[in-house]
Amino acid sequence: MIIAYIARTNIPSKSAHSVHIMKLCAEISKKADKFTLVIPKQEKAEIESDAFSFYGVDKFDISISDVDISSKRKGWRFAADAIRCADKALGTKAYAVITRDVFVAALAVLQGKETVLDLHGDIKQITGRWYRLMKFKPFAGSKHLHLVMITNSLKDYYQKEYKVVRTDLTVLPDAYDDTAFGKVNQRPVFDISEKAENTNNPIQIGYIGKMIKGKGIGLISELAAIDPKHTYHLYGGEKAEVEEKTGIKFTENVLFHGFIPSAQVPETLQKMDIMLLPNQDTMNVGGENIGKVTSPIKMFEYMAAGRCIVASDLPVLKEILSEDLCFFADAQNASEWKNKIDYIENHRQEAAKKARDAQVKATQYTWRSRAEGMIRLLQWSKIR
Q1: Mean pLDDT for the chain?
Q2: Which residue from 73, 87, 221, 311 lies 20 to 30 Å from 133 (Cα-Cα)?
């Protein structure tokens, strides 16, 4: 099968969006007979090899459109030029398209290409008034279109908001890189043995990700302030920058380690015991509230690393997590989070078992399996 993945993203970039695309494309490229990723015009004319090291993925073909989308919305223009680039790179017009861009999907479908539209939020965010495309039957009802949702919550949203009545909607949650995690030496959580409880070693508490309020950075600040005996390690930004942008102040027991590239995440997680997933019900990212529909990459990485997780008690996170795999706490109540951490510290064997069980479940959610899910949709369309 010949496949083009077309995306509006910069490579390299600190965004989770770019991590998702690079990890997924690395796996799709291994399954396709021929593959290219098409992205907008970049600051540099070529993608250097260290960009692949930045994400910790093997090199694959990347084509660069002539359209620069940084200054204003250029949805249709980028879509048309990106498809032209894919035609040239692949040497044929007979290929399948995978994209998160509804403009690209619309043009590809109207050209008769088998197309996977991978939805992670409300399309209004990038289309504006063109959200009506989801109600345009020649597109939304086309047999060439395969709709993938990141969560069941997002699937429910599209069925309610856009009256998407198709029976073939597919939910493929986010994922982790099992190859990268398999290369690191696993440290037992809390450094305890299978048979003995060891309460002498201080627990290490961490968070990796964006430093914004919707991700729960304010909750971490409150938690650290009422829990001075523990040190909190934050990866994703510098203290001065985060305090300036959010207006949130942090106590001395919060250590900022700055941004780390995706390739360093597996090893960094092995330094921690408890990882925090303090997502909020309202989470504005790029002007869109994704709090109720998100499938955070960090959740799967926490699980894959075998770390103990304390997570916000939100329905969307419970699509993957359960009481058997983590500890839930009220997303608005820092005292409840402190109580969970105190409980974990005094019940390390119980917490370690949950971490191990979560690690086993994580094997269901790899970038490889997500890529295979999309390719199955494209292959199935050939025999319908």
Answers
A1: 91
A2: 87
Instruction: List, in order, residues 6 or more apart from 45 with CB less than 8 Å away.
Output: 64
**How many residues does the structure list for the chain?**
384
For the stretch 290-303, pLDDT in tens is 668 889 999 999 99
CB 86 within 8 A of CB 97: yes
* Cβ proximity of 354 and 327 under 8 Å: yes
Among 119, 106, 125, which residue's Cα sits nearest to residue 20? 119
Q: Was domain 178-362 assigned CATH 3.40.50.140? A: no
C-alpha to C-alpha distance for 202 and 209, rounded to whole angstroms: 23
pLDDT at 383: 40
- DSSP-assigned states of every residue in 135-169: G-HHHHT-TTEEEEESSHHHHHHHHHHS----TT-
What pLDDT, in 10s, does the model give residues 221-274?
Answer: 999 999 999 999 999 999 999 999 999 999 999 999 999 999 999 999 999 999
* Ramachandran region, residue 56 (left: φ > 0; alpha: ψ -120 to 50; beta: rest): left
Q: Which amino acid does the sequence have at 272?
A: M
Say if residue 264 is exposed, middle or buried (CB neighbours under 10 Å; 0-12, 13-18, 19+).
middle
Q: For residue 192, is pLDDT > 90?
A: no
Give the mean model confidence (pLDDT) for residues 179-207: 78
CB contact set of 189 (below 8 Å; sequence gap of 6+): 273, 306, 307, 308, 351, 352, 355, 356
pLDDT value at position 170? 96
DSSP label at residue 190: G
Give the pairing of strands 308-312 and 96-99.
Answer: unpaired
State mean pLDDT over 70-86: 88
Given this structure, which CATH class describes domain 2-174+366-383? alpha beta
Q: Pinpoint the residues of the chain covered by CATH 3.40.50.2000.
A: 2-174+366-383, 178-362
